[in-house]
Amino acid sequence: MQQTAPSDPGLDAEASERRRIVTSALSELPAEQRETLELGYYGGLSQSEIAERTGQPLGTVKTRMRLAMQKLRSQLQILRSEGGA
Amino acid sequence: MSDGMTHEVASEALEALALDALDASEREGVIAHVAGCAECQRELAVLESTVSEIALAATPLPMVPERRDRIRARLLARAGADRAMAERAFADVRAESSPSARPSGVVPLRQSPRRMNASAWMAMAAGLVAIVGMGGFLMMSRERDAMRASLQAVQAERGARVAAMDSLRTTLEEKDRMIANLTGAQVAVMTLASQSPTSPTGRMFWDQAHDAWTFVAHQVPMPKSGRTYQLWLVTPTAKINAGTFMPKSNGEVMMQATYALAKDSLAAVAVTDEPMGGSPQPTTAPMMVASAR
């Protein structure tokens, strides 16, 4: 029989809050940037493959991916400061 | 480090590197730059932390075969690229660490600590395993070569000893045979006299049981150039060639021959001076002779 560790209400709440922040940050991205990010992260595609899949120039894909990451980095700064504290 | 990629180009690719979305060729150049750039290392650390947070927002989805195969193919390709890069880096380190490749008195700069992702660590670990394995292989090869050389030396020494024993055994058998020919119960001994001023002396031992003839002589002078001595068994009807011989530098002679002859048919034993190679019949007067009767 598999046993699971008893859940900590405090940790659960913290994880839930972090998930909410990340989801919010992703939803605030422009659609084309979020699509590029999701194809790269969730889809496992390279930038060239994303360009081929979306029909966009490779340079455009690179720019969108970079901008998306920079915005996420800024939005999620709060998580790193909390996690590092 | 000469990675061929400027800091500006590499820094603009750090986001894609953190997402693992760079193409293989570009990824290698960026990683090579990051390895020697502290600023890019710090930036990449933050970006990778950001990427790790994205997982929090992920909704668990069943892995479709297409995606699984695609990710697996990329991981395999990346592992191959990391391995090749690690091998090249190791080759560079070896070349740089070689005393011959570094001018004397030059202290190599210490590299700043580099941040490496898991695949790079695995590649380095694999490289270290390969290095250790290569070292072990070289050590085993040297030990094997040393053992093989030792075995060959032992075999050669054993061969030499066997040859020496065979030679001694042959010599011993010859001595035993000679002793038997000289001291057997049916051995007749004839003393050869000489009229030569040097007074050579000789004895013929005839082992009648084995038809063996042993001729021993002393103080025999060296024949003239192109000449040799020839031994004859003289019977009433023939002079039988028993062979030619040359004395040693000290005048000693010892020769053996095998020839069946009836006991009462031998009249004399004689030695003559003959042309080199011997003669069918004596051409000179005997220098040594013994009567058998």
Q: Helix and strand succession of chain A?
A: HHHHH
Largest sheet of chain B: 8 strands, antiparallel
The percentage of residues in β strands of chain A lies in: under 5%
Shape of chain A: elongated
Q: Just name the CATH architecture of the largest domain in chain B.
A: Sandwich
Query: Into which percent range does the helicity of residues of chain A fall?
Result: over 70%
Amino-to-carboxy terminus distance of chain A:
37 Å
What does the overall shape of chain B look like? rod-shaped
CATH topology of the domain at 31-84 in chain A: Arc Repressor Mutant, subunit A
Weakly predicted, low-confidence segments of chain A: 1-5
SSE series of chain B:
HHHHHHEEEEEEEE
Please tally the helical runs of chain A, counting DSSP H or I stretches of 4 or more residues: 5
Strand residue percentage of chain B: 15-25%
What is the strand tally of chain B? Answer: 8
- CATH homologous superfamily of the domain at 31-84 in chain A - what is it? Winged helix-like DNA-binding domain superfamily/Winged helix DNA-binding domain
Q: Could you list some keywords that capture this structure?
A:
heterodimer, A: Arc Repressor Mutant, subunit A, 5 helices, disordered N terminus, B: alpha+beta, Immunoglobulin-like, 3 domains, eight-stranded antiparallel β-sheet
What does this structure look like?
Chain A is built from five helices and no strands. Chain A has helices at 9-27, 31-41, 47-54, 58-75, 77-84. Chain B has three domains: 7-103, no CATH class; 119-183; 187-291, Immunoglobulin-like. Chain B has an eight-stranded antiparallel sheet with strand order 5-4-7-8-1-2-3-6, with helices on one face. In chain B, β2 (201-207) and β3 form a beta hairpin. The interface between A and B is medium-sized, with 28 and 24 residues.
